[in-house]
Amino acid sequence: MTPDDVFERVREENDTALSRLGSSKSLYAATGGEMETADVLRAAADAEHAAHETFQAWADTSDDLVHELYQETSDEEADHYDRVTAELDDHTPSEDASAMHAHLRALDDPVERAGGYVGRLLATRASKEQYVGFFVGQADPQTAQLFRDLKGDLDDQNVRAHDLLDAVCDTAEDSQRAIDAATDTIQAAYDEYTHQLESLGVNPKPVC
User: Global pTM?
Assistant: First the structure.
């Protein structure tokens, strides 16, 4: 099974969750219903900081190519954090990791980490467009472009995800374990999204 096959399977098996994580409700959930500009920026900053810490921990406990790939991602996320917080007067990162990052930080198996990386990438890509859309709606093209640039960096992470899968998945069983880990990661994000919306009195499912 190739890395492309892994990605395809993960997308197919998590189509509904990824679609809802990419909906307009995702930003409402992430901010706890507080949709002022500063609230949205703080939510984004917390997400970037959490990613930096997760992947730095993985880099510190990995070797060779895998270490390099996680280190590149950690450094990238630290840069994202700096670029987002430059739009705020000040920011203290939340000490509480999201459910997705709490899940990722519990992984120590190389194959499961690679799968978790894929799951986090797909979940993040699904939700990132909502930040762009928010600032377009706020008539703030400069900040909207900032988030387009951050979303564009996910293309580099996509390449790294393929390299990670190539590096650690030697058998079909390994690939299936990576798929399962990716699904568990997306599900952690989706479960938290659902809980956040329900706590705000919002139906997480689209109304047809």
Answer: 0.95
